[in-house]
Amino acid sequence: MAKTPYEVIGVKPDASPDDIRKAYRKLAKELHPDLNPGKPEAEARFKTVTAAYDLLSDADKRARYDRGEIDESGAERPRYSYRPHAEGAQGWKYGPQGEVNAEDLEDILSMFGGGMGGARRGRGPRGEPFAMPGGDRLYVLTVDFVEATAGAKKRLSLSPDSWLDVTIPSGIEEGQVLRLKGKGDPGIGGGVDGDALIEVHVASHPYFRRDGDNILVELPVSLAEAVLGGRVPVPTVTGPVSMTIPKGSDSGAQLRLRGKGIHRRGHAEGDQIVTLKVVIGDVNDAELAAFLETWAQTHPSDPRRGMTTP
Amino acid sequence: MIGFDELLVRLRGLERRELTRWVENRWVLPERHAESWVFHEVDVARVELIVEIRRDFAIDDEAMGLVLSLLDQVYDLRRQMRRLCDAVATQPPKVREAIRHALPHKVNDG
User: Fold this and answer.
1) Judgement on whether residues B100 and B49 belong to the same structural domain of the protein
2) Does A100 touch chain B (CB under 8 A)?
3) Which of A87, A250, B14, B89 is the most buried (most CB within 10 A)?
4) Is B18 part of the contact surface with chain A (CB cutoff 8 Å)?
């Protein structure tokens, strides 16, 4: 997120022109390139600060920025329009509460056949019943990572007293669309009902990642656990399990928990792949440092031996 | 899709309690997810619309409810009309021609 010009200068959004000038002069003195020769970072900041001041010191530009008409670089922000959204696939969401489109539309259709005996139901040009399939409706649903891997039942509220029950299949992927037959707009004059299309978004997880049907997780282990090995608890999408760390495991070593990944119908079971990350812990541990100093003298090694210098 | 706080950052000057009230009034219908709100594109566009109507036309809270309800009805009619046009477009040329002839050219003609 780009900083606002107010943040760049270090003033509040309601600062007076005088405050802005003072704050700018203070920064300019600190950062001026002639006073900071050979410091490119000061020069870069000076440019940012000057650009922010150019915008804020011009009352007209400042007002336009505050109204959101221009961005922090002074460029015009594209004018948004609500219409394409309202008329797009998601626009129904803000339709009149509890609407039933079929009836309104049948009223309109009955106007077409209005001269033919005042038919209440839709009629075609020659008076035959006018059948029309219902439209599809698009819904958006966000599930969390674990729900997406294991599958879940979700209830999508349409209005305070109506909902759709949606079964999320295990292993669903970000952006996948589920189709619920006949849950869209009702058909008219005997036409088939439309479908509900549910676009599923998967929220990211603090430590699980996904690679196909495998789950990836980075597991911090202590220096002692890495060198001596041992059993440690590991989180999986179905709950914690115990895993053995082999003696002498390096940082970056990968261990596989078979069958702990995603199980999709008709696919081989995925695994969880655990990548070890050795964490030293207290880096100021004097005892450890003293031990390593003596130990290093008798155990010379070069882990970068294989790297050739260009 | 973006969260509540991100939306506040994007719309400089919009206060937290205002956006909260708009959601409570059901002027904006973000998706409830994990104890917070997720705004999809249509919701963000709607918040921007409310901000603009309020600023440019000095519409207060009470009138805003009415304005939004009228706007929603217009868009609903337009959606219905679109469906009807789509249905007409799938008719054979003869039928489309007949409909075109049957339409009055001006309101006065009818």
Assistant:
1) no
2) no
3) B14
4) no
